[in-house]
Records
---
Amino acid sequence: MTTEQLLRTGSGLSTVNARAAVNYQRSVIVSDEERQWIKEGRVFHGFEGVLTTPGTIAATDLVRQQPQLMIRVPATVVIVPLSVIWVPEATTAISQMLVSCCNNDPGVANMTAVTPVNVNTRFAANSSAVTCYGTSAGNTGTAPAGVADLYREYHQADRDAITGSPTPSLIYNPSAGKGQECAIGNDVGVNALLIYGVSGTTGTNTGFFIATWAEFTFDEWYS
């Protein structure tokens, strides 16, 4: 159980009327940034593949204009990617995962819209400020520019050939030291988070993708 208390200096209130969460042992509760963003209703996720029906991975190699999942960030919005999980299901060759960002609009041709969902159920009715696309079937229309590669993983062995344990997922999680932290978005144009997962044989590979990110207005992030 917790309650909110005003923080005071020895001479009374500080110049900022700030509140802090304090438990019944009078210890101040300190949350990390991600937990605070979740509490504020800023964190959304988009996914491809539902229950036991995975998404189809059409690409046979990494191609900049063919992300498997894309978060399209409009002008005046900034996102901070928190995690990406790729769970390969049917893989017939090498598995490659790449997470990138770009400073232009790569387009949405050959992709299907995905509805982002708030991970805090209190804010379930709040709509995301970005758009999410999955199920890549070809080039998106425009070559990504100003690309930064944030995470890469490569497996030569057939993922389905692994025995004795479930097929392991591939995970981008910068707060856990797996990949580079970044901020995506500006005040003048569309930017994007690009997620790739390929396994080498057209039409025969499937899997599940989950991407999670925090959203801010440009002014909130840079104020």
---
Amino acid sequence: MRWLGLALVVALFGAAAAKAQVVALGDSSTRGYLLPISDAWPAKLEALLRQRGLNVSVANEGINGDTSEGMLGRLDSAVPEGTRVVIFGCCGNDNKDKNHKVFDHEGNIRTIISRLRARGIAVVFSSNSGPSDAATAQNAGAPLCGGMYQGVPPEELEDSKAGRHPTPKGHDIIAARMLPCVMRALGRKS
């Protein structure tokens, strides 16, 4: 009976180890704003990774309207043990208007990246707020995977009261651009 229990534990551990965990941490650009979560780029990225034979789950931890301060505050709950890669899409809402005042914007970016790297998690950064954030992330050790909307044509971005957000086709483009960055972070050739 002991052997059966041990075999079950080994089988479960092997299955868990075989499934890499990727977390997409961000704001509405990650969440998909008003789209079903299945139409947002993290779900589409997971499908692309699986098409390449990788047993990878991609958790969408994007929250509409979130800031770097909010992401830092929920970092431990958003990024569970076993996560191998975090795609950190940040900061379009920081200091966007009087309702979004983040006083240590750059410090939050550095702290998020350093805390993730201290846990042995690879971090890929995609900025939706400008080149200074990209430089801050790269200096903290997170390679840049382009601007969040890089390569998305204007007709695939919709304007709303909450700002610009990609259409489902725009999310396809973002997922395809993220694919080689995440595969490198996982140690795989694209």
